């Protein structure tokens, strides 16, 4: 009987070890990067959902400063449906593509100069199922929504902390950009509610960080038009006519309104050659194209699929733009992420299919958060810190739209509009801080995500996360 007991105990230990190895992998080398990685990288899957039939993939990079005490931030990429490679290799992670002309081999990587992981532990999550290497085991599990994401990511985090108890005392922040502006405030609230209900392990949530965030689409459409006017992309007369005939909007307008339709056609002609994610950049071939000539936000109000389509980046090299294009790296990511050696190094499960940078058209998704402002209000009442930053040359989610909804909160200003500096004589952008611990900042010359100005973005993040004035 005693021998049988020890045999059962031994087999249980083996099964537990197997589960941990299957769930996470410590990555020492990555195809495309020469030599061992000079930072600590872990990848893995965590099962979530009612029947644990959703497999969410993550990259975890330990802080290069002091991982035991530095904040831990979970980073979500927008879409919904875009891979966290957008954060890990483009926006704020420790590696970037070299940008060499593609030659049929694994695209080469190099260290990023301005990684946010120099001062924080970052957990890059692929959510919802269908994003990046994450997947669902059946059709029902593949269905997602804004609110379902907040519940599943909260479930993911608590499961992840069970396997990583050494980080439970670290300050925790939620971060993301673009469409994550809808998810992140709701997730912060969900984590807080879970803590109050006694869910374990408790998550030491302190606040959140958002870049060019979708927040309230019904006003953001108007600010796309006003931004185009302020930047000299459309005339005074056309702007005034758009306001008069279309209410200043580019979607949710009456299709029978002939005057508005004419104005929208003129508007489309004016901006059709503009790279709307950063209007100063050349209009190279991009991996996101619009069904119409008019860039729009998700048409959440009517529940229709978003008009913004995403290109996977997996096409043949003959379709690549020149390496000098800012968008070239997006195409390289398709070749890198679908390479079998890369997938093996990252521990991607064999049942996973083809990777795409943004899988926005193939995820059954319900847009059920139409306005994220109430979540910001609730989070402010709980005392959470928040940083909202905007590249001031992004036309997708203009900085003016973020300014506008922040003003509706009517919080007192504790540090009024002023430049924040890279050095004593170099303006990096402008900032304002409110009494609810909310800081708004622009990035001068910035685009739709942190990757357009990594030096300014990383300095902004470091100062804010360390509690220093910008």
What does this protein structure show overall?
By secondary structure, the chain is α/β, with parallel strands linked by helices. It has 2 domains: 23-216 and 368-465, Rossmann fold (3-Layer(aba) Sandwich); 218-308, no CATH class. 33% of the residues lie in helices and 20% in strands. The protein contains 13 helices and 18 strands. Strands 1, 2, 3, 4, 7, 8, 10, 11, 15, 16, 17 and 18 form a 12-stranded mixed sheet that branches. A two-stranded antiparallel ribbon has the order 5-6. β16 and β17 (426-434) form a beta hairpin. α6 (217-230) crosses α12. It is globular and about 60 Å long. The N and C termini lie far apart (67 Å). InterPro entries: AB_hydrolase_fold, Peptidase_S10. Keywords: Disulfide bond, Glycoprotein, Signal.
If helices are DSSP runs of H or I spanning 4 or more residues, what is the number of helices? 13
Radius of gyration from the alpha-carbon trace, in angstroms: 22 Å
> Which structural class best describes the helix and strand composition?
alpha/beta
Describe the sheet with the most strands: 12 strands, mixed
What average pLDDT do the residues reach? 88
CATH topology of the largest domain: Rossmann fold
Give the CA-CA distance, first to last residue: 67 Å
> What characteristic shape results from the CA principal axes?
globular
Q: Which bin fits the share of residues in helices?
A: 25-40%
| CATH-scheme architecture of the largest domain | 3-Layer(aba) Sandwich
